[in-house]
Design a protein that fits this description.
It is a multi-pass membrane protein. The chain is mostly helical and about 525 residues long. The protein contains 20 helices and no strands. The chain has three domains: about 200 residues, no CATH class; about 100 residues, no CATH class; about 190 residues, no CATH class. Helix 1 packs antiparallel against helix 2 and helix 16 packs antiparallel against helix 17.
Length: about 525
């Protein structure tokens, strides 16, 4: 299964660089080869319990698929912005690609360094890959860009040491690279933009995303350290939690956002949300869907209490939420993508805050949330945090957040790139959901080495093709020209990757589909 997963990742890397071949292509190929070898060292460390931190069980390290996400995303972003003539974001793409390569190389060196005896061949391969990457960075980056890449690496190192210690068994090494690498990059971007604020420069919704992500992470770190020294389940601790959340929100996050957007954040948000009648309709519709999702949770828990033998929700029950999320995102993508962008940021902040309430058992809702959400746990929620619903939101939202709006003058990219904002809907909302439902109910032929079925994968590919046809009918801004073969190949590769990966597919699949569509 690991070999097939690696072959699929290599197929994506070669497909992208067959279209976009430049000096970074050699780096990407070298990085993929060394990550393939180092991945087995990480897997051995995890099996023998020799890793420094406790990682999520029942999964391989996932180093290769995670290592290639940021480099490939940076390369395709660079090419799209170069074609549009936007030099600033072309350079930004180069920084993203270089940062992704350096973070992946660091994780590889870490695995090689703690493996005993030291694997000579893997060390040589890692050294060659590192030399190619550093040589290319030397001739591609300015001094300020090199400093920026090293800043992200430094933040990543410290953030990894803190969060992997505080949150055992929540991530695989690959998932840690994706999540903590992304948070490190966002934090560095926020610091950089805060120090270089130019009035009227930058989109407020971009700043809103940066501040929201960094704010909730800092909030979690603060309370994690605080509750080491006091019991979080008492009423006094709970009152202190709510009070400090208000203080940090109104005293730190709001002024920080005010400095960036040069206006009152609350007034700006209210004006933005209720700017048009379409937005009002969408907000009412989304409120109804949110209430429906809560209804599913309460109904399933009531059903569990009446059926004592039932302890966990079935796969099909969990996929109800995928259908609700698709019904949420598709109208937003068609009618108002900026509103969807901001609403997804708000939803992420609420989800993470509620997870803090559940994890710390904050009164009056902490224990209730623990009871309600325990029904929907699966084997991937083996750590103290429940992250699958947050990963689902991230998987649907990342293609919207990472869409290079400045490099798409008409609001959409040409050809298959027009489907980039729909990557989460296609890969997770349609493909993963249909594969899971049909595979678990009608699948008989299993892919070698996995529990996934051939019928589930084929049905997922077919369902995504139908979804693309429906998008063409209902979204007039999408014009695929002659990119149908590339779309079919992209959907097929990502669906096969879903069948073989043991990583969090809600997070990984949309990013790979976005990379393929942007290429």
């Amino acid at each position: 299964a690991v070999l097939v997963e690696s072959l699929l990742v290599f197929a994506v890397v070669l497909s992208v660089h067959a279209v976009v071949w430049d000096r970074f292509s050699w780096c990407a190929v070298a990085l993929a080869l060394q990550a393939f070898y180092v991945q087995f060292k990480w897997d051995r460390l995890l099996q023998l319990g020799g890793a420094v931190f406790q990682f999520r069980g029942a999964a391989n390290s996932g180093l290769l698929p995670a290592s290639m996400v940021m480099p490939l995303l940076g390369v395709v972003m660079k090419e799209r912005c170069r074609a549009a003539g936007i030099v600033y974001f072309e350079r930004f793409g180069i920084v993203v690609a270089s940062t992704g390569m350096l973070l992946a190389l660091f994780l590889s060196v870490l695995a090689v360094g703690i493996t005993k005896p030291v694997p000579t061949n893997t060390c040589i391969l890692t050294g060659i890959a590192g030399s190619v990457i550093i040589y290319t960075m030397k001739h591609s980056l300015t001094v300020s860009e090199v400093i920026e890449v090293l800043e992200v690496l430094l933040i990543f190192v410290y953030l990894s040491m803190i969060l992997l210690y505080l949150l055992p068994r929540c991530f695989t090494p690959g998932e840690a690279l994706l999540v903590l690498g992304g948070v490190s990059f966002v934090l560095n971007q926020l610091i950089k933009r805060s120090l270089n604020v130019i009035e009227g420069r930058g989109d407020p919704i971009d700043f809103f995303l940066l501040v929201a992500v960094v704010g909730v992470v800092l909030l979690g770190l603060f309370f994690t350290v605080l509750f080491i020294f006091m019991d979080s389940g008492t009423w006094i601790s709970s009152m202190f939690f709510h009070m400090m959340t208000a203080v940090l929100g109104l005293g730190v996050i709001m002024p920080w956002l005010y400095r960036l957007i040069q206006r009152n954040p609350l007034f700006w948000l209210l004006q933005f949300l209720f700017q048009t009648q379409t937005r009002l309709y969408l907000l009412v519709y989304w409120t109804f869907l949110a209430a429906s999702a809560c209804g599913v949770v309460f109904y399933q828990n009531a059903k569990r209490s009446s059926e004592s033998k039932k302890h966990q929700a079935s796969t099909i029950t969990r996929k109800y939420f995928h259908f609700i999320v698709v019904a949420t995102y598709v109208p937003g993508l068609i009618y108002d993508r900026q509103l969807l962008y901001v609403a997804a940021v708000l939803c992420l902040a609420v989800f993470i805050f509620l997870e803090y309430v559940r994890y710390f058992r904050i009164k009056p809702f902490g224990q209730t949330l623990r009871h309600l959400l325990s029904l929907f746990l699966d084997e991937r929620d083996s750590g103290p945090l429940i992250l699958t619903h947050i990963y689902l939101l991230l998987g649907m939202s990342l293609p919207v957040w990472l869409f290079p709006r400045s490099c798409a003058p008409k609001g959409t990219l040409p050809g298959a790139g027009a489907l980039v904002p729909y990557a989460g809907v296609l890969a997770v909302g349609v493909g993963d959901t249909i594969a899971s439902v049909f595979g678990s109910t009608m699948g008989e032929i299993k892919w070698p080495g996995t529990k996934k079925t051939f019928e589930g994968t084929m049905t997922a590919i077919f369902a995504q093709i139908i979804a693309v046809a429906l998008i063409l009918i209902f979204d007039s801004s999408v014009n695929l020209n002659s990119g149908y073969a590339w779309i079919l190949a992209s959907v097929s590769l990502v669906s096969l990757l879903e069948a073989y990966t043991t990583q969090i597919d809600n997070l990984l699949l949309p990013l790979y589909l976005q990379i393929m569509l942007m290429a």
